[in-house]
Structures are given as C-alpha cells and as structure tokens.
Amino acid sequence: MDILNDKIRKANKPHKCDWCGCEIAKGEEYRDTTLVNDGIYQWKSHLKCDYIFNKLNMDSYDDADGVNADTYREYVREYIQDELNMEEAEAIICDGSEIEVAYTLLKREEATK
Ligand SMILES: [Zn+2]
Question: Domain 2-112: which topology?
C-alpha cells in the first residue's frame, strides 16, 4: 500500500469520517489521505480518530484485510473495556460515545507520561 497524498485539511463542506462514520463538520480540520491499494482510494478521518488509530497502534493489528471501520470500532471498544470496569464500559458503548471517551482516556494517559 502506497500513500500518494496525506494532508491535514479544513473541511469546506461536511464529510464523513471513514473510521467512525460520523460527520466531519464544515470548518473542522481532518486528515485526507489518498492511498493506492488495488486502485486508488481516498480516506478521510477526524484528527481525533486518526489519533486513536495511531495511539492504539492499530496498524500493527493489521490482518489480511487491514483495519476497516468495523474493526476500528471494535478495537476502540476493547480498549475501553480494558481501561474501565464492565458497567462503565457498557454504558459508554450503548450510548455510542466510545470514540470520545477513548480519545479522552488516551490524552489523559499521554499527559501523565
Ligand atoms: Zn471519526
């Protein structure tokens, strides 16, 4: 897999994050990557999602299919389940805020290092 283009851009219209599937709001900074892997495709992501991906070393989890949006969420959930107790983790996963929480936990961890 080759990276043709990798930029931090400011959204001039709303986009969809290819990791979490949520909206990248107009005016928000996001990462725009163009990859070659059996064809050319574009990958857009929140800086937050990109941060989580890198912090959790998801590129090292890579299996034959690579990490996609589904496995991304799965890894985020696993991380939360490792970090928090079962009840807390389940409540977070139920209300869909796992990306937000994982980001906060990782940032806190980074700050205490
Ligand atoms: Zn995202």
Answer: first zn-finger domain of poly(adp-ribose) polymerase-1 (3.30.1740)
